[in-house]
Design goal:
The chain is of the alpha/beta class and about 350 residues long. Among the domains are: about 40-135, Alpha-Beta Horseshoe (Leucine-rich repeat, LRR (right-handed beta-alpha superhelix)), CATH 3.80.10.10; about 170-280, Ribonuclease Inhibitor (Leucine-rich repeat, LRR (right-handed beta-alpha superhelix), Alpha-Beta Horseshoe), CATH 3.80.10.10. The protein has helices at about 1-20, 155-165, 205-210, 235-245, 285-315, 315-340, 350-355; strands spanning about 40-45, 50, 70-75, 80, 95, 105, 120, 130, 145, 170, 190-195, 220, 230, 255-260. Strands 1-2-3-5-7-9-10-11-12 form a nine-stranded mixed sheet, with no helix packed on it. The protein has a three-stranded parallel sheet with strand order 4-6-8. Strands 13-14 form a two-stranded parallel sheet. Strand 1 (about 40-45) and strand 2 (about 50) form a beta hairpin. The longest helix has 30 residues, at about 285-315. The chain binds 2-acetamido-2-deoxy-beta-D-glucopyranose (NAG) (4 copies). One 2-acetamido-2-deoxy-beta-D-glucopyranose binds near residues 132, 133, 136, 164 and 165.
Length: about 350
Amino acid sequence: MARRQTRASSRGGWLPWLGLALLPLAVPPAAAPGGCPSPCYCVATPELVQCRYERLEELPKELPLTVHNLSITGSNLSILHRAAFASHPLPDLRLLRLRHDNIQIVEDMALQGLPSLQTLDLSHNPLLSVAAGAFAEAPLLRTLQLNQALLAAPLEDQLASALGNLSLRRLELAGNALRALPATLLPAGLEELDLRNNSLEGLAAAELRSLDAPGLKGLRVTLGANPWSCDCSLRPFLAWLRAAASRVPDARSLRCAGPPPLRGTALLRLRPEGLPCTAGEGGEPGRLETASYVFFGIVLALIAIVFLMVLYLNRRGIKRWLHNLREACRDQMEGYHYRYEQDADPRCTSAISTPGL
Ligand SMILES: *[C@@H]1O[C@H](CO)[C@@H](O)[C@H](O)[C@H]1NC(C)=O
Ligand SMILES: *[C@@H]1O[C@H](CO)[C@@H](O)[C@H](O)[C@H]1NC(C)=O
Ligand SMILES: *[C@@H]1O[C@H](CO)[C@@H](O)[C@H](O)[C@H]1NC(C)=O
Ligand SMILES: *[C@@H]1O[C@H](CO)[C@@H](O)[C@H](O)[C@H]1NC(C)=O
């Protein structure tokens, strides 16, 4: 009995007690303008406001002016409107976390009124459109988190123009099913790029060149949890990785997803020149072989058709030739019969060879 009680209190029962402990510090809900908006929690000082899993349809209005970090998760914001914060500016807000908020559209000037914003987290939203000026008016924005936010629509071009005028330092694009390096999204001066849990099978020479562009010399990329395809097309990337391992902090965790004999092998344990070209299932070599068989078959069929056509066109000549041959044979046979009247087994070939005897 007592045990059950303690377990219950260790699971969720501590929350009210924590609330009580923080009560003297917390701003009472539904406070005057500048207080904490009713569905949200203001923790400690009103510097950190969290609105979690409240079905907000729009951003809360009466936020404390001093808030540094604002986190709204699990709501249904749908659209991040133009100048959503402009009527109640938050001059000190540095971090805005809007995860799992069903945000689909980010309009122009969405961050107006947040002059100090440094970190924007739009992860886990089904983004459909991002206006070119969406992040304008946030000159200090340095970190943008878009993990699992680009799965609903191909947004690379729109994002490229939205990021164009920013001086980002960190960009997170994990879990977006990316099949190639999003080279257009890498502003000069970027220092950290998170591409974990995407669909990268390798990086081509051109992609590696864009990572070595002058403005991106200091860039570090995390690439774990991608399905690396360890055949010979991976050679340029592997050579680059071995030479620049410090630029990929999680280089040691990269593993092959195929071909089967190499599945699970750490990339850094492979030598570029040792990567086979033929082992790939349905890879380029396999496809080439099939193609050559098909080509061979077509050539054979063509030859057969030409042969049959020649036979068909020449059928009279062939008939005449056969007729002549038969006549010649019969003449020979008659001559044979004439000479050797009683023969049990007369054969044309022997008839041809016997007249000399
Ligand atoms: C606000 O966010 C920053 C960056 O994530 C963090 O370092 C800081 O501790 C947060 N402040 C509060 C009061 O939680
Ligand atoms: C979210 O809001 C939109 C309109 O803003 C509404 O059509 C939709 O049903 C809402 N979704 C949920 C899960 O509440
Ligand atoms: C980006 O900067 C250029 C000039 O540097 C300017 O013409 C353009 O309007 C800016 N775009 C945005 C979205 O602020
Ligand atoms: C990886 O990304 C996919 C979506 O692309 C997501 O469903 C999955 O949960 C992610 N895995 C991890 C471990 O984050």
